[in-house]
Amino acid sequence: MPLVPLLTADEFSTVDRPTLTAGVDAYGQVLNTWAAIGNSPGLFAAYLPFLKQVNGPGALEVRVKELAAVRVAVLNHCRYTASHRCTSALAKGVSLAELAAVAGGELDGFTERERIALVLAEEITLSVPLLSTDSSLTGVTPGLRDEAHRLFEPAELVELVMSISVWNALSRFHRVMLFDLDMPGAPEPVAALL
Questions:
Q1: Does residue 111 surpass a pLDDT of 90?
Q2: Is residue 3 assigned to a domain?
Q3: Fewer CB within 10 A of the terminal residue: the chain, N end or C end?
Q4: How many separate helices (H) and strands (E) can be counted in the chain?
């Protein structure tokens, strides 16, 4: 059972309804995460455009964002986020075999940029929460930061780190809220690691 009531479209505040209408037009339904966010009037109106900006086309290839988001979902053991991110990645041309490799941390078949993005996603997800600033100011290994700096332009790095950070926040939100799936479940090789 979700932690908060899941609002129907007519229960959203008037400030959130234009954004909700645009979201429903794009996805065909009120997603469970939206229905929960609707409990805080005005938050959804800010959330959906922000998420679209972070996750959509920009300086960084969407494929890199999708791969990193799937890795974050798996590392956070979030069924809901994994279902959404895998559905999105598959729709954008990522193969089932690539999703299975990302989920399992098997990075040999990916480009250098993709591998560094995936390792960065793993370190941001797993290391940052555990390392004090006395042991690591950034929470990620210096060599990894250097490689990311070498391979990505500043705008790409901002989008990459923001995307990884947003999916960490959302996967934790989704997991604690305990949403039922409203998109297809993650493919078996991914679901097995959740």
A1: yes
A2: no
A3: N
A4: 10, 0
CATH number at 70 reads: 1.20.1290.10
Reference 85, options 105, 63, 106; nearest CA is 63
124 to 28, 66, 109, 169, 170: CA distances (angstroms): 33, 16, 22, 11, 14
Burial-class residue 145 by CB neighbours within 10 Å (0-12, 13-18, 19+). Answer: middle
Supply the range of the domain harboring residue 142.
62-191
Q: What is the pLDDT of residue 122?
A: 97
Q: How many domains does the chain have?
A: 2
Q: Residue 184 carries which DSSP code?
A: P
- Quick one: pLDDT band at residue 130, thresholds 50, 70, 90? confident
Q: What angle do CA 74, 87, 51 make, to 5 degrees?
A: 80
